[in-house]
Design a protein that fits this description.
Shape: flat
InterPro entries: TPR-like_helical_dom_sf
Protein name: Tetratricopeptide repeat protein
Oligomer: single chain
Strand order of the largest sheet: 4-5-6-11-12
Largest sheet: 5 strands, mixed, barrel
Radius of gyration: 28 Å
Distance between the termini: 35 Å
Number of helices: 10
Number of domains: 3
Strand content: 35-45%
Number of strands: 13
Length: 427
C-alpha cells in the first residue's frame, strides 16, 4: 500500500497540469445552506434531559461551521408543521426573541415522542450441566474447509444433564422521535430538516443483567443526538482531484472547460459541462469522477455515488489516478473497524462446545459470560429497520483459549431463543 501511494504521488507530481486539487468540507446536506452561518442560536424542547442538552452544545461548539453557539430560552412546536410553516415559526421566534435576532441561524429541536414501556413475559430456559464422564459426539457444526460443517471426525465432550428453569423476561420498549430544523437567517431558508427516531427494545432475564435499562437508554439518546450533529456539522476536511482530459475530443474539451470553471469557483457551470460531456460519451470515466467530486462539494454525496461507481470503467479510467470510490464507501458505508467489536459466537458443536471469536478482546478462563443477540426491529408496513432489539439469550463458561478463539461450554439457553452463531459475548 505504501509503494502504491508513492507511485501515485510521483505520477501526480509529474503531471500537475493534468489535475486540479479541490478542498472538500464533507457536508452531508446542501453546502449553500450554511452561507455565513457562524453565530448559532439553539431552541430546545423543555422535555430534553439536561445531560442531552449539555452534550449537544459541546458537540455543536466543536463544529467548524459555527464560531459561537448560544441557548435561546423559548420553544418551537414543530411536530406537525410542514416546510412552509417551519419558516413562519422561525420568523415569529426571531420577532419576539432578542437572542434569535442577533443569531445568523437557529437550530430547533422538538421531542415529539418519548415513551418507555415495560412488560414481563414468562418463559423457560435449558440449564446445561456437565457430568463427570465423557462421551463421543459427531463433530458437526464446525464450518471448516472443505467439510462445511459435515466433519468425518468425532469429538470428546462431557455428557450433559439438561434441566429446565422458569424465567421471567423483562422487556423495555423505547420509542423516541426528535424533529430538528436549522434555519439560516442570512438566506431566509431552512437549511437542514429531518427526524431522528427509533423504536428499540431491551429484553433480559438475569437478576443483575450485564446490560441495564439505563445503559441502553443512554446509548439510544446519544445515537439520536449524534445523528442530528452528523447532519448539521460538516465532516473533516479532505482533498480530492478534478482531472483534465488529455485529448481534444468533443467530450474532452467540455471536461477541460468544466475544470477551468471549477477553478474559478463556478461549480454549477462546471457540472453542466461535465453533464454535456456525458451526453456525448456516456461512459467517460473522467466526466463521471469530476461530477462525483462536484456533488460531494455541494453537500450531496448520495448523487455522487453513482458517478463514482463508473469512474473505474471504460477506456479512459486510467486517467483517474486516484479513484474516489473505495475511500467514499469507507466514509459513508463501512463501519469503523478501529473500534473494539464485541466477542462473537463463531459456532457451536454437537458436543455443546462453543467457539468464540474474541475480536482482540480478552476473556477470563473459567469465567461465566452472558450472551446477547442483536436483532433489527422492522416496520410492519415497509420492512425498514426502525431500531434495535438487544436480547439476552443465555450464558456460557469459557474453558480455554486457542489460536485467537476461546472455547467454552453452554450453560444456559432460552428455549425460544437458543444460542446461535453470531450472538455476542458481553465482557
Amino acid at each position: 500500500m505504501v509503494w502504491r501511494n508513492l507511485v501515485i504521488l510521483l505520477l501526480l507530481s509529474s503531471c500537475a497540469d493534468k489535475f486540479y486539487e479541490v478542498q472538500l468540507e464533507g457536508y452531508k446536506t446542501p453546502r449553500e445552506g450554511f452561507t455565513e452561518l457562524k453565530k448559532l442560536g439553539v431552541v430546545m424542547d423543555e422535555d430534553f434531559a439536561p445531560e442531552f442538552s449539555k452534550k449537544l452544545f459541546e458537540s455543536l461548539k466543536q463544529c467548524r461551521n459555527f464560531s459561537e453557539v448560544d441557548d435561546i430560552k423559548t420553544t418551537i412546536n414543530m411536530s406537525k408543521a410542514n416546510s412552509k410553516e417551519l419558516k413562519e415559526l422561525f420568523e415569529k421566534t426571531i420577532e419576539k426573541d432578542a437572542k434569535a435576532r442577533t443569531s445568523n441561524g437557529i437550530l430547533a429541536l422538538d421531542l415529539s415522542v418519548k415513551r418507555v414501556k415495560k412488560r414481563l413475559e414468562k418463559s423457560t430456559a435449558f440449564r446445561f450441566l456437565d457430568r463427570k464422564n465423557q462421551d463421543w459426539f459427531v463433530n458437526y457444526g464446525i464450518p471448516a474447509k472443505p467439510e462445511l460443517g459435515y466433519s468425518n471426525q468425532f469429538e470428546m465432550a462431557p455428557k450433559r444433564k439438561i434441566g429446565r428453569k422458569s424465567i421471567y423476561i423483562r422487556y423495555a420498549d423505547y420509542e423516541y422521535k426528535i424533529r430538528y430544523a436549522l434555519y439560516n437567517r442570512v438566506t431566509g431558508k431552512v437549511a437542514v430538516e429531518g427526524i431522528a427516531d427509533t423504536a428499540s427494545t431491551l429484553s433480559v432475564f438475569s437478576a443483575k443483567p450485564a446490560v441495564a435499562r439505563k445503559d441502553v437508554q443512554d446509548v439510544i439518546i446519544a445515537s439520536l443526538r449524534n445523528r442530528i450533529i452528523d447532519k448539521v456539522c460538516e465532516r473533516q476536511q479532505y482533498k480530492e482531484f478534478l482531472y483534465y482530459f488529455p485529448s481534444n475530443t468533443p467530450a474532452g474539451l467540455l471536461i477541460n472547460e468544466g475544470v477551468d470553471l471549477a477553478k474559478q469557483n463556478r461549480w454549477k457551470l462546471a457540472a453542466t459541462k461535465w453533464e454535456n460531456a456525458l451526453a456525448k460519451e456516456s461512459k467517460n470515466a473522467v466526466a463521471h469522477h469530476n461530477l462525483g467530486v462536484y456533488y460531494e462539494y455541494i453537500g450531496d454525496p448520495i448523487q455522487a455515488y453513482p458517478h463514482y461507481r463508473r469512474e473505474g470503467r471504460g477506456k479512459w479510467a486510467s486517467i483517474v489516478l486516484q479513484p474516489r470510490l473505495e475511500r467514499f464507501l469507507d466514509e459513508y458505508q463501512t463501519p469503523d473497524f478501529k473500534k473494539s467489536f464485541l466477542p462473537q459466537i463463531a459456532f457451536i458443536s454437537a458436543g455443546n462446545w462453543v467457539y468464540i471469536y474474541a475480536n482482540n478482546n480478552k476473556l477470563g478462563i473459567n469465567k461465566k459470560y452472558p450472551i446477547f443477540r442483536v436483532e433489527m426491529n422492522r416496520s410492519e408496513t415497509e420492512q425498514a429497520v426502525v431500531g434495535t432489539h438487544l436480547r439476552e439469550v443465555g450464558s456460557i463458561r469459557v474453558i480455554r483459549e486457542k489460536n485467537g478463539f476461546y472455547v467454552g461450554r453452554v450453560r444456559l439457553s432460552v428455549v425460544d431463543y437458543p444460542i446461535l452463531p453470531g450472538d455476542f459475548v458481553i465482557n
